[in-house]
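> tool_call: predict_assembly(chains=two)
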Amino acid sequence: MGFLEVENITKKFGRQTALDDINVSIERGELVCILGPSGCGKTTLIRIIAGLETADGGRIYMDGRDCTELPASKRNLGIVFQSYALFPNMTVHGNIMFGLRQKKELPRDEANAKALEVLRLVDLLEHKDKYPRQLSGGQQQRTALARAIALSPDYLLLDEPLSALDAKVRVKLRGEIRKIQRALSVTTVMVTHDQEEALTMADRIIVMNNAVVEQIGTPREIYNHPATPFVANFIGMMNFYEREGEVCAIRPENIALADRRDVYDASAKIQSLEFKGPLTRIHGILPGAEEIFVDISSEAVDNLSLRENSMIFLRMPEDNVMKYSEGSLI
Amino acid sequence: MPDRIKHRFSGVNLPQLTVMSCMLAAFTVVLVLPLFSLFSNAFLSKTGGFVGLANYARYFDTPSLSVSVWNTIDISLVSTVFSAVIGFLYAYALARTRIPFKSFFKYTALIPIFIPTIVHALGLVYLFGNQGILTGLGFHTELYGRFGIILSEIIFTFPQAFLMFYVALEYADGRLYEAADSMGVPPLAKFLRVALPEVKYTAVNVFFVCFTLAFTDFGAPKVIGGNYNVLATDIYKQVAGQFNMNMGAVVGTLLLIPAVLSFIVGRLMDSRNTGTISAKSTTLTIKKSRPRDAIFFTLCAFVTLSFLTLIASLFLGALTKYYPFDLSFTLKHFAFNMSTGGMGSYFNSLEMSLLTAVFGTVFVFIYAYMMEKTNGLGALRKYGKLLSVLPLALPGMVIGLSYIFFFNSPENPLNFIYGTVAILVLSNILHYFSVPFFTATGALKKLDREYESVSESMNIPRYKTLLLVSAPLSLPAILEIFMYYFVNSMVTVSAVVFLYSAHFKVASIAISHMEEAGDISQAAAMSILILLINVFVRLLYELIIRLMKKRARRKEAI
């Protein structure tokens, strides 16, 4: 049994099914991302794990203990919300002490030492006497993280922790969160709709759609072997086309260009070329009017002097083609 | 499926459930049960037998009684029209013109809020009565009766009309006016076709609010009603004069009608009137226009001058030896006769208002917190929301009367609070509950819902989150609620007129007794004391808010 076990969790809001028989097992010390489009039920799932929402059916086990009925306060977890929910009338230090002071057995000076320790960890020591509104977005985020880990939780839950930040800060904080998570080896569940965030940070990814789990796996597994067309389409770029009653899928970077005289799998007419630095994405049309995207090095585009309306010949290596039964296409 | 049943209760948190149930039970005892006894008494005979609608039939068959219905509608309608029109123009002047002294005009418009309605009438007596200042200057009016009541109700309802219109006009969508300008729409058309439609929902609300206030007011008709009977004075005569409790209950239910109507209309409008002001709205720049400003300035000056004259006349009466014959200065009118309440009534009022403000604010805020920031408890919450808006539809006299029926009954275990300050405080908290509730809810809605989730995850008990996070962050709203409760409790007559006892008379009642006893100067003196404490509390509130804003700015600047 995993350190966190989600068993047959079901949740409905009125007639809307938010979670339909969800099963997840998370190991101690892992960082797991729940990834999915908005409205797929990922936030509901993390709130049920947190004990902030009650499931209609199913069980939650934490470290082997049935915690389904326990309120959030009894689950020993730290949460970082999308809005951070920092108490605006308390300083950074005060925010962290607020939770620490609830531990009756912890003397005041030890609580204080603990607060300073986590502040050092998130590199906010010099800002400890500031109020939240005096901080930048990234600093607020780190304060929320510090507050969540100060109580040495068994589980760290992050609900879209980076989505309120601008792109540069986001990338920097990804690394920092991951570093801190590793250092503390705290079991972490993070909700995100950003696939890049999930791919770069997670040990394993849970891909959700329409209230169900589509696939659970490492970032590599998810990317290289998407279990369903939804996963294939949601993560990274994917070409879909039909062959002999089967839905085939291949990533743009796995398609190779061939010479007219060589063996090739398909031909396409170039619709447009999108220069992306080292790579160029070719937008082509197959004879059956299907669209196809091919990524090749910009150098090759120049060498072959490809331009709009020229014909290209494509090779799709068998190993890289994924096949799904017909009708499973979204 | 036992699993399912278990789940249903797992979301319920026992302390929360207990607090919520206790509050709802208390609310039920002070609101629902008394109303029930009021209604049931309207259908009972004097001996306690069920008589169906016989009491109503008798009421409408007695012309001397039923004429009050028409009288009340008459004065309410006329005063409402006047106060709505003046209130609108006054608000327009402050929000949409460039007249000088705006904040002076804004605060003087609120003067009537700080004194009991009895005092509005008293001021009019000083100005237009048989020995009035203006009467002496040649203004002869038939003050006692319809005219006096209407005048008095206009003064009473004007601040409400003004405030509601002001809120509606204060935030204008400048884009509409820019668009109108670009199409070359002339000013008058702009006023009629753009500005007026902006406030049409507010206008309907204003109409109902003012109508209801005038319809149920007791103070003014009591003092200058003369022989012109209205429902509020009838109910008092039936109950306090003739001990005809069942007829009193009948009139009480009639008194409810416009309030209930306005309540329903208000609810309907709320659902439709979702603000059209969006983040994209631009602020309106007010153009220069001398003629417009001159007209509006004259209007504002006239209204303000009227109010100030009213107040000045009270001071004149209170501070001169024997108005209008001996105008030399004296403070002797502040040595109140014991027979009409004395200085004790003033201290009683202070005690009652402070208790109302303290307990009312605490109750309202916790109640709003429970409604806004807890999960689950669906049915209880719905009942709680319903209860929280009901007081809007309850005139003070109806609350007072229903409290007599309910708390004075010997079988009621709560009978002991009858005749004490407690029942006055309860009736005030209930009477003025809804506005503070909306204030508190509004403030709490602005706070991040996740504060509670974070606290929960850090194992911080809910009461600490309430005390250390939600309450401090809502401090301006809490102070506003405190002030609202205090000021209204100081001036209320209608809710307490049935409930005060000989041992605990309050100042507003004492004023009416002084007036009855002919001690007009003492009545004026007492009015001034009420006005002063209310203005003081209001200023204190403004000062604290200002200091808090300053401090917040300083904090940010660090």
